[in-house]
Design goal:
Blueprint: E1 14-17, E2 22-24, E3 33-38, H1 45-56, H2 58-63, E4 66-72, H3 76-86, E5 91-94, H4 99-103, E6 107-112, E7 115-120, E8 123-127, E9 133-137, H5 145-156
Parallel strand pairs: 3-4, 4-5
Antiparallel strand pairs: 1-2, 1-5, 3-8, 6-7, 8-9
Amino acid sequence: MAFPKIGNMAPAFSLLDQDGNKVSLKQFRDEKNVVLYFYPKAMTPGCTVQACGIRDSKKELSKLKTVVLGVSPDPVARLGRFIDKQELNFSLLSDEDHAITDKYGAWGLKKFMGREFMGVLRTTFLIGKDGRLKHVMDKVKTKSHHDDVITLIKDLGLHKS
């Protein structure tokens, strides 16, 4: 499946967060830029590195008028444990049926250790305050993801609007 087109409105969603609260893209409209990142599974090494980098960058992201939302097919309870264990300071959203992951084109064929299977393609979407998709990061490096996101927000001038 293809990614949504840059410049178009980002696909709408409402998903449950780690506390069972409904979070919708529209609630950030005109207020915050949104970094929507899709990751395969909570509490795995790569996903933990990626999440902790974002956690440690929260202050800078806030200064850039940006909120981060992580999306995975994990159930709500697992997301809560991940947040508690890693002391994460941003919301994780449960997309168990991967409907939103599909909508964003972040569900697809993966290869691991000679095996092929369907799963989450680690992908990040930058969405402006106007609700439009500004950038797609499909070559995500877990160790530098937070720095790469901050650089893109600045380069795209999203923090100025």
